[in-house]
Amino acid sequence: MFCDAIAHALRYLLFFSLAVVAACYVHEIGHAVAGLFVGVVTVPTLAKEYALRSQLDWTKEIWIALGGPIGTLAAMLSASLYFWCKPCSGREAVFAGTSVPLFVYSLRFLLVGRGHDDDEWQGAQTALGLPPASHVIDIFFMCLLVAALVVWFVRRSPSLRSWLRLPAVAVIGLALLVGLQAGNNTLFDRFFPDVTIVNVPPGLDPR
Q1: Contacts 24+ apart (CB under 8 A), 202-206
Q2: Domain locations along the chain
Q3: Whole-model pTM over 0.85
Q4: Which residues pair with 197 in a beta bridge?
Q5: How far apart are CA 27 and CA 196, in angstroms?
Q6: What is the mean pLDDT of residues 124-144?
Q7: What's phi and psi for 127, nearest 5 deg?
Q8: Are strands 49-51 and 42-44 parallel, antiparallel or unpaired?
Q9: Over the stretch 32-52, which tens digit does the pLDDT of each residue have?
């Protein structure tokens, strides 16, 4: 029985970790696809996208920025449907792993005041016709995270033990995402040139 529990935990962790990586990559693919629509070739890696040019105009950057949140939303909706149709342990792990970026965005928003570093959210909000300094995307992802918890509660009817395990899962997810981003940037930053964003409007507040 003990060996079965260990095997189950390792399987859950494997599916969870793969889902975290996949969710991050889909976010970057969103940037790359949006880049193609504005004529900018962008290489998506697991935790960062790289535009293949030295300068990028703000009018194009805003659409590339918007592609990331759209990718995250698509990944979350897909994982939610996958879990809702058959709420077994393996699918729960995928659902939980896909939710990790939402948790990290929300946590960063509460701690720093913005869910994403640099000016990505501000660019995406500009593309949507919203005030760039607003927090619409931050609040949207926080609401989506709460909705994910509701879906988990409704479909899984979690026990008290599952609720108590939730903070540990969140910490593991946070560590995985931070480690993925640090490792990815260390590996790939040397191969791609820094991109200078030009014609950036005044008043942005990257954090």
Answers
A1: 203/132, 203/133, 204/119, 204/122, 204/132, 204/133, 205/114, 205/122, 205/133, 206/114, 206/117, 206/118, 206/119, 206/122
A2: 2-179
A3: yes
A4: 56
A5: 21
A6: 94
A7: -60, -30
A8: antiparallel
A9: 999 999 999 999 999 999 999
